[in-house]
Write a structure and sequence with these properties.
Layout lengths: L6 E5 L3 E6 L5 E8 L2 E3 L19 H6 L6 H9 L18 H7 L20 E6 L12 E7 L5 E6 L4 H17 L5 E4 L3 H4 L3 H8 L2 E4 L9 H20 L15 H6 L9
Parallel strand pairs: 5-8, 8-9
Antiparallel strand pairs: 1-2, 2-3, 3-4, 5-6, 6-7
Length: 272
């Protein structure tokens, strides 16, 4: 029996050879069928001369249950939420490669080395996020975010409905004129229904404000305000957690799985 700790794959046109890293031993050979490589370990062509062995902890085997996190799997056992999952130890500090790939974000766009504006209200970036999972005490479920391009100052107004964007922006333009004795030169807006259906373009024309509707589904073109949205949401969740805010503003801790709530019985996953 030959023990091999790691192997190397050599792809051919119609086959693949699995060999030891040092190239001294051919472990087995597989043959291509359409887009799959098939191995018949009983066939002589495989040239199998090595004992194949793989080892994995039960915790990581159960992790393959939809790549659910170790912490969540542990919770299933702790609260006895499913049947057939017991006596399993989870490596909570070990990271899953698939999860890392799923959470990976795209490369960031280069930072601006030259300022494109020279005055505070020369350009404003605007965006609307929502609806949020939970309404505020006042019934608000949308957030209207305005970011000043030159100084980075941010205004956030919470709204009950998308249609409130029109009146909110109209009041904002008047406020800028009265408080800062200046006018808004240009606004950059995502090309979505939340703005187009509220006649923002007509309002801008009325106040002499130039507007730019960006290409749809290109968040990077309005990345300044999109990053601000993420920052605001992260800050909000952090504050909710730190000050132990009522669970009515947070995601509820379910004492049952969705399966049990729907079917009236705990799921049995022992056969997995």
């Amino acid at each position: 029996m030959i023990l091999v700790s790691s192997v190397e794959c050599k792809f051919g046109v119609n086959d693949i050879e699995i060999i030891s890293v040092d190239g001294s031993n051919l472990i087995f050979k597989a043959f291509r069928y359409e887009n799959l490589y098939l191995v018949d370990f009983n066939a002589s062509e495989t040239q199998l001369s090595t004992c194949l062995l793989t080892k994995s902890s039960m915790g990581w085997l159960w992790h393959r249950l939809g790549n659910v996190g170790m912490k969540q799997l542990n919770k299933l056992i702790k609260h006895n939420l499913v049947r057939g999952l017991k006596d399993v130890t989870f490596e909570k500090d070990k990271l899953c490669g698939a999860y890392q790939a799923r959470e990976r974000v795209g490369n960031t766009h280069p930072k601006k080395s030259i300022m494109s504006t020279s005055k505070a209200f020369e350009l404003l970036h605007m965006d609307l996020f929502g609806p949020t999972s939970y309404n505020s005490i006042g019934g608000n479920k949308y957030g209207f975010v305005v970011v000043n391009d030159f100084i980075g100052y941010t205004w956030v107004v919470f709204l009950v409905d998308k249609s409130d964007v029109f009146s909110t922006f109209k009041s904002f333009v008047k406020r800028v004129h009265n408080e800062f004795e200046t006018s808004i030169k240009r606004v950059r807006i995502e090309n979505g229904s939340e703005f187009k259906n509220t006649r923002i373009d007509e309002l801008c024309d009325g106040f002499g404000v130039r507007y730019q509707f960006l290409a749809k589904y290109t968040l990077q073109s309005n990345n300044l305000v999109e990053r601000k949205n993420r920052t605001l949401i992260d800050m909000a969740w952090s504050m909710l957690s730190e000050y132990n805010v009522s669970h009515s503003f947070c995601h509820p801790m379910l004492v049952k799985t969705p399966y049990e709530i729907l079917n009236g019985r705990k799921p049995n996953i022992a056969y997995f």
